[in-house]
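re: that complex we talked abt at group meeting.

here r the seqs, copy pasted straight from the sheet so there may be weird spacing, ignore it
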Amino acid sequence: MSTAQTTNSLAPPRTPAEPKRGTPRRRPRRLGTALALAPAGLLILAFAGYPLIESGYLSLTRWGGIGSPTWTGFSNYSGLFTDGTVAHAALVTVEFAVLATVGIVVLATALAATVSAGVKGRAFYRVIWFLPGIAPVTAVGIFWSQAAVPQQGAVNVVLGWLGLGDEHEWLAQSSTAIYPTAAAAVWAGVGFAFILILGATEQIDVSIYEAAKIDGASRLRQFFAITLPLIRPVLAITTMLEFVWAANGFTMVWAMTGGGPGTATQTLPVLIYVKAFQFTDFGSASAMAVLSGAVLLVLGLIGLRLSNGRETSR
Amino acid sequence: MSTNIVTRRRPRGFGALLSWLAQLPLAIWTLIVLAPFVMITLLGLRSNLDIYAHPLGFGGSYHFDNISSAWDGPLGSSGMSTFFRNTIIAAVTALVVNLTAGTTAAYFATKLSDRMRTWYLRLFLLGTVVPFVLLLIPYYQAYSAAGLIDSPVALGVAYAALGLPNTVLILNAYFRDFPKEITEAAALDGLGEFGCYLRIVLPLSRGAITGVSMLLLVWVWSETQLGLVLLQDSYAQTVAVGLLGFRSQFTSDLGPLFAGLTISMMPILVLYLFFSRFITKGIALGGSFR
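got the structure back, here u go
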């Protein structure tokens, strides 16, 4: 039986005849189906639906974390723009997300193009390069923040060997602290993007490359004229996903810098956390969450549109 | 798909040099990927003096005490042993709740009419884009009202719910391709719909279920933002959250800190090396870590 070989794989067991889609289904208005669907539906509504409404409500109140919230109308929102904190955090968020996204997508594309150009060991690379994405983000952040310390940190030691100086204090300076943080996010994120992009490059028919080779196109020319245009849809999805994840990302920034020095690397998720859980100003924090969350939600929806069924239609 | 097995001529001269040069960046990236893991492991076994003398960990004597310091934790606080227990409690809760509700929903959603199914799945699709910042404060409010702060089990339920979009969407796509012949044969033999799901479909879907479980597990192992908010006492914290407290308590004692990093990464990395095939397949099917 074919089932014996396929039980362990992710592909559904194969059958000799393709099952026909679109045959008329019987109306399944049955209680059993409803009962089977209810728990997951209720859980997602309770944990991803209700909080949106509650966040909206809390953003219109003053609440210190205990007792019941006091209604204050839109004063939290107007308060957000009196000082530059939120605007600054928004800028930092965009800077961090752009740096991380560009780094991840460019590196992953270059690596995927090289590997798919027939380099041996693609299975090995696929497994190994994904490791940084598996390790706990806090552990990764703690390591890289330690590695960026002057003289004693690994990065500075290696730069010292190369004659580039080992006294760099990136994390201690407001102007540079964002760079090692974004670099650590790139280190951790490349593996995931690499798998997505490599998947797209592997779909390209080799005969196209062979035709190009006969016409005398160089490897580089082939990359820009064939690979890049053909993987553009996947690149767009990957870029969108990585941007939204980076802009949502709290842990890497928190573990690397805690938002510091001062507020130099305070992204919106960090600012919201600090405002709520260190200053117990849950109302203002909710207002920030609603504003920034709305932007991220829209970006996410655009991403869904772009990927139109990376998940559903497969 | 065309075959990838193209007979490749062995490049000579300049061509050989070029193909060797193409390998070089890959080797460098591999080194950058692996070096931190090696260094963390080595530094975790060094004394403080050795770490200052050899900052990359290559040199000095082995100092296995670090591991027990990290395992027991600093005085008056919790160590890796506690964090591990909590992570395992949260992860097991998440897996059980997520798979029970998610797999069942994914399978029985295939029984819905196309219109109903689209609507049902849209719930989960929207769940993939809900920003975390909008969840934290309402969760904190609800959990503290219910007295569930510092409960790894309650945190695990939240993880289970937030992992549902992945589970339901991936498995639903999988179940829709599930051959009808098999389930119809079972129905002819007198098996009810639920019995067919439990006794025929589930056992044949172990691969796909392993895939979504691994995605969930890797995410839960690393999740920090929610854990930080819902687990306040170090006694209740998970590995990812506890490490942050570790750092502030071991500032002058780097050996145990690195040993803690090693311990925190080891189980999930080993699990990954065994199941990497399922994870990459799960990602190809549209999965992600939340």
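couple things i noticed - The two ends of chain A are 26 Å apart (CA to CA). Strands of chain A lie at 61-62, 70-71.
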